[in-house]
């Protein structure tokens, strides 16, 4: 075992031997090793957010025909560092009457819920936090902790806008969790495992080629889970001031910001690991470094799509959003699940080879996608459009602008 | 196996500790000059009327209930999906009947108007 073939095991062995040398028993040494590994992984993820914030501001700037941050350092890359230093010195303003415990716990819980996902993500063939046999279930369980954070923030703030924003966010997040979890069943079915590294290993054909519709639905619902445009109703400025984080200031607000950016990269990595083959690529089995580079490239591409899509799409309306998940995504996902389960079981019985099954499933997914699209389009075209022009509406004229009816003013 | 969960436990502690530490450090660095106006609830700059912890629409509960049905369903479906490769066609068909019953439940909730956002 050398450093280049198994950096994770190499370093932990080295650390355990080092600690044993100064008389610490192996069990405690391993716990210390775990703590160090967890701290390095989590801190690395948090500092990576600085780069993500810069990248997103720069890209959205270019989309909107601006330069984006360009003052500090080359291409403005130190702008988020300066922002972070500034936000560290900002006062915390706690609204009077706030429920202190949920108010203060909410930003911590929101960041922690995103960070915890990183414990089971395989970054390369031997580089992962832990090889948990129920990794995917763990990700689903931990991922929904963020909703608790949002509800606590809204409740604790003692502000009606924050409260409304939190309720709306909770309704949206739990609704989008249903098709997301259903779409995760398909890779589990195909790989026969909940272990994240096993799911990557079994992707001789990337699952996006076997189940493109499931991948697409997972991608969409993950974006909704993050609360990003076009699903950013949780912080619709024109309706709810700023949503659940209205009353937060200083680094407590900054934590929600960090959680948002980190979550968007986390879902890019999840899409990559579950559907795009994770660290797999030519030569990745023997060299973890190469696998890590492949994973980063794929995840960056997914993240790039998320950013561009945020810059280019308008926001949904809340009723459209709820209709979209309950009346489109969930039934489609259930139908796809039934058909996939049936085909994967019956096709081997009639002697269709593995590549043939993949091709049939691919065609089925694409057909279902287009069928759904045409049904939704036909439905939208049939729906009557309300005519708002003909209605009598109160107009702000000089004579009725300040006066109330019956006030005598 | 147990050490895997030890790692998860340590990782959870670390991921709670890091943001908590950052917030505490920033609280030590930042100025603290509260006053009544500054601490008042911000509602679009207007005076707050009444309590904030008000009654809200029952519709949120309806969505939560429908969500609960599907969440419990997926809890049952994940073990099935893991065992899918070793399963006979009969087992798969039974799970499909289960999914179709739930699809019926979704259609029922839909027809009842539980999925309309008012």
Which SSEs are present, and which pair or pack?
The complex is a heterodimer of chains A (409) and B (118).
Chain A (H helix, E strand, L loop, with lengths): L6 H15 L4 H38 L15 H10 L11 H18 L17 H9 L1 H12 L3 H32 L4 H6 L5 H4 L1 H15 L10 H4 L9 H26 L12 H25 L5 H32 L4 H29 L27
Chain B lengths: L1 H28 L6 H4 L19 H24 L6 H23 L7
Helix pairs in contact in B: 3-4
What Rg of chain A do the Cα atoms give? 25 Å
Major pleated sheet of chain A: none
Radius of gyration of chain B: 25 Å
Globally, the shape of chain B reads flat
Main pleated-sheet profile of chain B: none
Termini Cα gap of chain A: 88 Å
Structural class of chain A: mainly alpha
Query: Which stretches of chain A of 5+ consecutive residues score pLDDT under 50?
Result: none
- Average pLDDT of chain A: 83
Tell me which protein chains meet in the greatest interface and how many residues each side has: A-B, 88 and 68 residues
Please give the oligomerization state of what you see. heterodimer
Shape assignment of chain A: globular
- Tell how many strands the DSSP assignment of chain A holds: 0
**Number of E-state strands of chain B:** 0
Distance between the termini of chain B: 49 Å
Strand proportion of chain A: under 5%
Helical content of chain B (DSSP H or I, runs of 4+)? 55-70%
Question: Approximately what portion of the residues of chain B adopt beta-strand conformation?
Answer: under 5%
Q: SSE order of chain B, as H and E?
A: HHHH
The whole-number mean of residue pLDDT values of chain B reads: 83
Q: What structural class is derived from the secondary structure elements of chain B?
A: mainly alpha
């Amino acid at each position: 075992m050398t450093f280049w073939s198994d950096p994770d095991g190499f370093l932990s062995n080295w650390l355990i031997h080092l600690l044993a040398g100064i008389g610490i028993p192996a069990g405690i040494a391993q716990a210390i090793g775990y703590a160090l590994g967890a701290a390095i992984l989590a801190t690395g993820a948090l500092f990576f957010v600085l780069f993500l914030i810069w990248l997103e501001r720069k890209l959205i700037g270019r989309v909107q025909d601006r330069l984006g941050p360009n003052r500090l350092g080359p291409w403005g890359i130190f702008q988020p560092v300066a922002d972070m230093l500034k936000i560290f010195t900002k006062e915390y303003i706690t609204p009077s009457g706030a429920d202190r415990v949920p108010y203060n716990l909410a930003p911590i819980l929101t960041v922690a819920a995103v960070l915890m996902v990183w414990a089971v993500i395989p970054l390369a063939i031997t580089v992962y936090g832990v090889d948990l046999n129920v990794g995917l279930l763990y990700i689903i369980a931990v991922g929904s902790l963020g909703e608790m954070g949002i509800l606590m923030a809204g409740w604790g703030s003692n502000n009606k806008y924050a409260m409304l924003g939190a309720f709306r966010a909770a309704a949206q997040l739990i609704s989008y969790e249903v098709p997301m979890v259903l779409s995760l069943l398909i890779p589990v079915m195909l790989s026969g495992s909940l272990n994240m590294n096993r799911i990557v290993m079994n992707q001789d054909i990337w699952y996006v080629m076997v189940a493109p519709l499931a991948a697409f639905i997972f991608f969409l619902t993950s974006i909704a889970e993050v609360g990003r445009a076009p699903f950013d109703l949780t912080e619709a400025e024109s309706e709810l001031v700023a949503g659940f984080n209205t009353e937060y200031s200083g680094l407590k607000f900054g934590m929600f910001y960090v959680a948002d950016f980190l979550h968007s990269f986390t879902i890019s990595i999840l899409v990559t690991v579950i559907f795009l083959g994770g660290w797999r690529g030519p030569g990745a089995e023997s060299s973890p470094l190469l696998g890590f580079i492949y994973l980063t490239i794929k995840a960056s591409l997914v993240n790039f799509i998320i950013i561009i899509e945020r810059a280019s799409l308008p926001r949904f309306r809340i009723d459209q959003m709820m209709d979209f998940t309950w009346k489109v995504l969930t039934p489609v996902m259930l139908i796809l699940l039934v058909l996939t389960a049936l085909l994967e079981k019956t096709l081997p019985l009639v002697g269709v080879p593995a590549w043939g099954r993949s091709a049939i499933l691919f065609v089925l997914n694409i057909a279902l996608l287009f069928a759904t699209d045409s049904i939704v389009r036909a439905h939208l075209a049939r729906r009557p459009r309300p005519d708002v022009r003909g209605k009598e509406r109160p107009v702000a004229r000089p004579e009725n602008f300040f006066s109330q009816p019956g006030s005598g003013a | 196996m147990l050490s895997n969960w030890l790692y998860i436990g340590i990782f959870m502690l670390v991921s709670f500790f890091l943001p908590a530490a950052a917030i505490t450090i920033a609280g030590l660095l930042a100025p603290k000059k509260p006053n009544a106006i500054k601490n008042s609830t911000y509602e679009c700059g207007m005076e707050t009327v009444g309590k904030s912890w008000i009654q809200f629409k029952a519709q949120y509960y309806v969505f939560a209930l429908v969500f609960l049905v599907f969440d419990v369903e997926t809890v049952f479906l994940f073990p099935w999906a893991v065992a899918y490769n070793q399963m006979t066609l009969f087992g798969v068909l039974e799970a499909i009947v289960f999914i179709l019953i739930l699809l019926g439940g979704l259609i029922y909730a839909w027809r009842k108007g539980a999925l309309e956002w008012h």
